[in-house]
Design goal:
The chain is mostly beta strands. The protein has a single domain (about 10-165), classed as hypothetical protein yedk fold. About 5% of the residues lie in helices and about 40% in strands. Strands 2-3-9-8-5 form a five-stranded mixed beta barrel. A four-stranded mixed sheet has the order 1-6-7-12, with no helix packed on it.
Length: about 180
């Protein structure tokens, strides 16, 4: 649907606060236009008692404004010293539901990922994960044509494949 999505990238749940990433949203100055812009991950800590929030729970919430999408080929998570990649079973890319906040003072345009309870494949590793928006649901999320409760659901069993990320050891020096 969006040409920049020819090669979506992994979403690292362990990325640092303020990490920058592309988001897709309705242009706030021209709602007929969809745009891809760069945003920082996490809410402005100046307006949250010094705390930063990178996620927002979906349960009991409505998101009437500021909806955006995070394109992803997978999401990654960490459990102890181990890292895992989570992909859709069919290998398709997807979007994470998110909300964006305008730039304020010295904090740039930012976003937070909307979460749902973990599905059966992810639950052994963590309690929650980002809400998955499939390509066919993009406009439903951005245009609010479908109620949140119908889009922000825990995916059913056999939706994901979870694989440990094995990093190959690095050779410290070249032996001659």
């Amino acid at each position: 649907m969006f040409s920049p999505m020819d090669s979506p990238t992994p979403f690292d749940s362990d990325a640092p606060f303020g990490d920058r990433r592309a988001i897709i949203r309705r242009n706030p100055d021209d709602a007929s236009e969809i745009e891809m812009v760069e945003a920082a991950w996490g809410s402005n800590p100046q307006f949250a008692d010094g705390l930063s929030y990178r996620f927002v729970r979906s349960e009991g919430r409505a998101f009437p404004a500021g909806r955006c999408l995070i394109p992803a080929s997978e999401f990654q998570l960490r459990v102890g010293d181990k890292r895992y990649r989570v992909t859709l079973d069919g290998g398709n890319h997807f979007y994470l539901a998110a909300i964006w906040e305008p730039a304020m003072r010295d904090w740039p345009l930012s976003y937070r990922v909307v979460t749902v309870a973990a599905n059966p494949e992810v639950a052994p590793y963590q309690e929650r994960h980002g809400a998955i928006i499939h390509r066919r649901q993009v406009m439903q999320w951005l245009d609010r044509t479908v109620p949140e409760i119908d889009l922000l659901e825990t995916p059913p069993a056999r939706t994901f494949i979870v694989e440990e990320i094995i990093e190959s050891p690095r050779q410290a020096a070249l032996a001659l």
